[in-house]
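Re: your question from the hallway

Yes, I did run it. Sequences:
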Amino acid sequence: GQNIDQPTEMTATEGAIVQINCTYQTSGFNGLFWYQQHAGEAPTFLSYNVLDGLEEKGRFSSFLSRSKGYSYLLLKELQMKDSASYLCAPLDSNYQLIWGAGTKLIIKP
Amino acid sequence: DGGITQSPKYLFRKEGQNVTLSCEQNLNHDAMYWYRQDPGQGLRLIYYSQIVNDFQKGDIAEGYSVSREKKESFPLTVTSAQKNPTAFYLCASSIGDTQEQYFGPGTRLTVT
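Structure:
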């Protein structure tokens, strides 16, 4: 079956760095997306990795290891507005997104 | 401004009634999707459409129906056959399979 595993909740301090891990098992693989979702709102796109390695985009970076079925999202210089859920979603062989339940990130001053 | 609109934001219905949720996009995207989100769970795909006049069932299509008569519009009907219709419904669109999906603001449906 297809499975996504992310921590349910994480807490970090404003200004710090946090890494949100995601492991996945899918039928085939065509890349992996990370989305941010604030409470009660729609998800917004953060990153897409299709090859192994690190993709950096401002304060956010995303890493992928296809052989390990593993990805992480790295958030630097945390701000209060980063409090949100972070959704890991690999694309399977049918080009369907398989969504994890998300990691709720709580930022404390 | 290009984007996706869903209306209404909140919708209340009595059990046994069908209800249609609207989704319109002016991004000129070919693909459109309907998801359902329940607390503590990932998004689950209800229906998707890659081209006008064609759509496919997702993982939880039972009790739902869609149409795609125009590229811009992909309405979802929640029928009385859907056993647990209360949820947050999200519509999305994308240029293609490997492109990011853009989401509408969502409709929170409550059925009592």
